[in-house]
């Protein structure tokens, strides 16, 4: 009975958001999805309570690359790009700012977290023209399955599976699987599993950092 009721509510929410989706598609056809999408994300972010959660999930299931089953997107959380992907059972806390990112299944994002697409979205090499007119690099960012990002963290690089990122941390380099990382900039302090020696884990972390540096 509970499952049927939930399915009914989800279907009703989908019907409710269809007019908004139609208006979004019309706007996207006129000005492009990059300009049309953020306003709708901001609008739906302001819907309170459980009703807001259902309506947001319904709208994002139509507009994002993916919005998985039981994903919970809290009040005030906004996406800047429709290219974002949200896995099943993901929780996103209040007032998060999210770019064109991938949140894999079972990811937990605390409140006031910012996840951006790299640290070089704007060029800064020239001083004779405004920064806004200089081209930058847009880097896809993935938060791995089962990871937890703490309150107020800022993330601009990949985070592996089953990681813990401490509150207020600033992630600027890739974090390997099972790592616990804290601080500004975030540094790995230990690993959650003990299947492999700590030296192997640190070597893997160094490999990821070196690979990211070579790509940039």
Explain what this protein looks like in three dimensions:
The structure is a single chain. The protein is an alpha/beta fold and 216 residues long. The protein has 4 helices and 16 strands. The chain has helices spanning 2-31, 33-45, 49-63, 198-215, and strands spanning 66-67, 72-73, 78-79, 85-86, 91-92, 97-98, 101-103, 108-109, 114-115, 141-143, 148-149, 154-155, 164-165, 170-171, 179-182, 187-191. The strands form 3 sheets. Strands 2-5-8-11-13-15-16 form a 7-stranded mixed β-sheet. Strands 3-6-9-12-14 form a 5-stranded parallel β-sheet. Strands 1-4-7-10 form a 4-stranded parallel β-sheet. A hairpin with a 4-residue loop joins strand 15 and strand 16 (187-191). Helix 1 packs antiparallel against helix 2 (33-45). It is globular and about 50 Å long. The relative contact order is 0.08.
**Largest sheet data:** 7 strands, mixed
Strand content: 15-25%
Radius of gyration: 19 Å
Low-confidence stretches: none
Overall mean pLDDT stands at 88
Give the terminus-to-terminus CA distance: 53 Å
Category from helices, strands and their pairing: alpha/beta
Major sheet strand order: 2-5-8-11-13-15-16
Number of helices: 4
What's the number of extended β-strand segments?
16
The gross shape turns out to be: globular
* Helical fraction: 25-40%
Order of helices and strands: HHHEEEEEEEEEEEEEEEEH
Task: Kindly list the characteristics that best describe this protein.
216 residues; alpha/beta; five-stranded parallel beta sheet; 4 helices; 35% helix; globular
Secondary-structure blueprint of this entry?
Elements: H1 2-31, H2 33-45, H3 49-63, E1 66-67, E2 72-73, E3 78-79, E4 85-86, E5 91-92, E6 97-98, E7 101-103, E8 108-109, E9 114-115, E10 141-143, E11 148-149, E12 154-155, E13 164-165, E14 170-171, E15 179-182, E16 187-191, H4 198-215
Parallel strand pairs: 1-4, 2-5, 3-6, 4-7, 5-8, 6-9, 7-10, 8-11, 9-12, 11-13, 12-14, 13-15
Antiparallel strand pairs: 15-16
Helix pairs in contact: 1-2, 1-3, 2-3
